[in-house]
């Protein structure tokens, strides 16, 4: 009985979530484009860009929740996959600048001209084609996750060890991308984008379209995650999360399951990064900073680990708070609030907002059911049910 | 200043006077003119004045030049009068030596730049070659060695003949060789001998001297110089390996110091304390506060500031650690990942709190005199601060090890970490032991902060720069084993320092990180892994 | 029954409350509209938290101070100035977001902000798209001239090249260590210096280039290398473009290994009064810095400014530094331009700015050039024991800032000219706008 109720209630919140995201994805761009500027109903362009950013963060949060909430793998380096996806997209956008850079070089991006690159490095080939970049957005993070996971899961690196080496991975990438000799623009990263698929990235229409696309990607990611966690595969993942050795002894190839879900999650993070870059207009190595990855994990913890809706919600709530507080007189105290949030959520809301809400609803339902039962008993109508 | 010294001092000046090719008559006129040039506030005039005063033979030359070096020489730009303020506060007119009551209002210290500072050093070198203090004589010989000024040769010859102290004699011989090597009219034999002396010295300065020689040498000498350079080079090459090893040890000791507290909280207790770096930072700020108090109240105690700061930092950071354990961590035992997130939040709060209290900028923590400077061991320079930090780290390690091994608290700690329930059944108050263990780990991090304040910035970001490295050390060495942390820290330090000259600082670090990731695949529990049932817990 | 009554009261009061709030909101809106007509808004885009807060907080205070002073004088065109402060939190994408917010939501007329190159690069597209004005006050790598940006800090030819000239002439330096943090400013500066040194006959083997990561703290190997490099019998100097936090351990290691300024002088381009305030400066005595302003320079303008600044911050020890002076000059130029065209319209102000002159704090008059850089004097200072600088050399006149370096192949034919050519990367060889390749 209980599992059935659980899936049904989750179904309902999932439906609400999907409807809301879809509605926002359609209404916000329409309002931005069709309503006259300055009207109360018009969503200003800067808010469209902001919401688009939140949608990308929500996708990242979903990808983390998929492995942490459902498989118990705490990656503190997921920002690396996000940033790699972003760099793949950034490279495409750089190549689209063409001869409109400040040096007017038709092939080389500006930073290569002043660092005296004689020709384009081989790893930049192909990024002038959108389809290639789009494939790379999935392949590069996926491949890194596959290699990393293949090594780590096979040798049974688990728990905190895994968390710490994922952090070492993103830290090593941070240092590497900071190097100007690495060929990705060093600290300045990639910026000053002009076109995406022939559309001006700064035009309102492109922004609206990117936002709609981000919402679509969020919906798709959500559906894929739902499909994974509700399938039989998902059950095995949860089993791995709760008792890894036992699952292994039952005959499941734990490594393969983990590897699959880790790689899938990295690809999702890469997509989030790719959508993020044209909307914020810059990708730079600080996206690899270990702190960013930890912060993304916090979004999931705040929203509710193991609830997909919660992860997305957590990303939006925490980032909205960040936007809000960095503008006002409270700006210097922003870190106090973020830090306190981390502590309070882990201490008081271990299940996160959505998790706690679900638990509360569950218990209320249970009480109501019990009340109804006892009322029925008192009336002497119903039969006592056997205990489950 | 003893009468004896003054006599000897006059003798030097006379020697300089007679030996110098252009003996300046000690008449009042030119000396006074030279002194007046100090008042022009023009670097080239000051340069000329230094040269003229140093070779004037006037007894005031030494006080003037040394006052110039210490910023005690002041000049009145209007009257062109120049004054020497003695180290004892007495003021005299530099040109006449007459006592003056007070400085004119518009007198300003005579300014120097680097070129002039070198001129002053060279001049003082010539003037202090016969100082009664052997250390000063060696320093003077060194500055002659560097300047290889021909004019100093007669003084050196005279001094060498009288010198009895072995070390000083060697220094004089080297200085003499340096002069001869650069003296255009020295004989070939003299030059060959000089090359041999300098080759024997065999350090980088000798190298600088030899490579700086022009190409117009007699063929024999030129050949000797080339072989000498080659021999010094191969010698230095060998020493550079030793040097890398020493740098590695020193970096390893810093890593160990930063990680050793974590080896307790993470390694022994299993708590992933992301706020560990902030405990280090708190230790550093404690040092800052101690030094501030000492500076304002008891300036005489400055050299002891670190000794006072060590126990205080331990107590402050330890107390904060106990508070953290009681307030947050004890609710999260058995949930390591949640602990990680909560302590990360805590680290943000602590950082911002320090930023609010002490400001976002770096704070100044001074080095006591015994932590400054360096000494030469063979051909490598060993700085005192690094040496003390290495000794200090090892001492902390030994004390900690002894504490865990021989005290009742140590026994209880080991018991609780090995089997909590059993320990509780035996009557150990496990929650008290938890709090104390965490406090101990945090306190040691605080001590590390005292040491790190000597080599790094004291800023709110101090802890962050060490946290990832510390975790790498503990994980690499093997959790739950202090010896593993020791070996891990020194291995990483030395590997890093041998990679750095080859790959550069950044690539070296990346390579180390990648190696650690690969190593963990091979040995998922680190170098010194715990065995048995505790592993699965 | 009773409950129903309370409910009614509650609804009633809620309605009244709503009405009152609506009234208040409308009133506020009307008030703020009225206020908007009276004031000119000035955006301040400096990080107040995160790693860059160390440097940028002071610049925020500087702009607030300048606005305060201007308002005491009656504001601009009879209107008061109003500062809008945001915190981009040392996060580069957040810089772009906040710039957009300032321009579209707060409708500021001008923005003073940014410190790092990457933050400037991040906001650049926003300023171009929304056509607003940014004043950028920090010494930077050059190779840029944008219509919407005015660069009041030093270009490489206003800091790096004069410093090298000084060392070559006065200290007779023959061997050079170019040490920097690995990011774009040191990379470009060192490239320019390398080309410049070679043009002066310095050989490749006499130049050592070294890059370290941000916040590098273990300098043992590099200092030993510098020492070794310096023992080749030729006078050696270090040109340091090492960034902020890494400087303290670097100078400490130099001091401890016994390298004095008289042996191997270090000339730094990123170490100023503010940075020295946190260091024990005794071991640094005699090392050099090149800037366009020092607090210790004696001039009536400077003394007046320092006094007013210390009174404003209520801290008699508060230091001043070069980027602050850049903001002083930039702010003054903006005020003059707005008063000249009697409008805050960005197009009009951008066209009016080139040619505007403003007094700098060191006794000269700086001028905005058609390439949106300004003329500045260059000073070389030696570090004194009290954390201040002693000026040992200065350029005879003001140096005009070059947007494009003459020393680099990629940019030697380029000029920025927003007056005649209306182009930031005009190629003087091909007489076309659009960079070297056009």
TrEMBL record, chain A:
This is Urea ABC transporter permease subunit UrtC. It is found in: Cell membrane. One of its GO terms (cellular component) is plasma membrane. InterPro entries: ABC_transp_permease (IPR001851), ABC_transptr_urea_perm_UrtC (IPR017778), LivM-like (IPR043428). The keyword Transmembrane helix applies. It is a multi-pass membrane protein. One of its GO terms (molecular function) is branched-chain amino acid transmembrane transporter activity. Coiled coil: none annotated. PANTHER family: HIGH-AFFINITY BRANCHED-CHAIN AMINO ACID TRANSPORT SYSTEM PERMEASE, SLR1201 PROTEIN. Keywords: Cell membrane, Membrane, Transmembrane, Transmembrane helix. The keyword Cell cycle does not apply. Its main location: membrane. The chain crosses the membrane at residues 14-34, 46-70, 76-94, 130-153, 160-178, 208-229, 256-277, 297-321, 333-354.
TrEMBL record, chain B:
It is found in: Cell membrane. It is a multi-pass membrane protein. Its main location: membrane. Belongs to the binding-protein-dependent transport system permease family. LivHM subfamily. Residues 1-28 form the signal peptide. This is Urea ABC transporter permease. The chain crosses the membrane at residues 245-272, 304-324, 387-408, 429-451, 471-495, 502-520. It comes from Bradyrhizobium jicamae. It holds the Pfam family BPD_transp_2. PANTHER family: ABC TRANSPORTER PERMEASE PROTEIN, BRANCHED-CHAIN AMINO ACID TRANSPORT SYSTEM PERMEASE PROTEIN LIVH. NCBIfam families: urea_trans_UrtB. One of its GO terms (cellular component) is plasma membrane. GO terms for biological process: amino acid transport. The keyword Ribonucleoprotein does not apply. Keywords: Amino-acid transport, Cell membrane, Membrane, Signal, Transmembrane, Transmembrane helix, Transport. One of its GO terms (molecular function) is transmembrane transporter activity. InterPro entries: ABC_transp_permease, ABC_UrtB_bac, BCAA_transport_permease.
From TrEMBL, chain C:
Gene3D superfamilies: 3.40.50.2300. This is Branched-chain amino acid ABC transporter substrate-binding protein. Signal peptide: none annotated. It comes from the Bacteria.
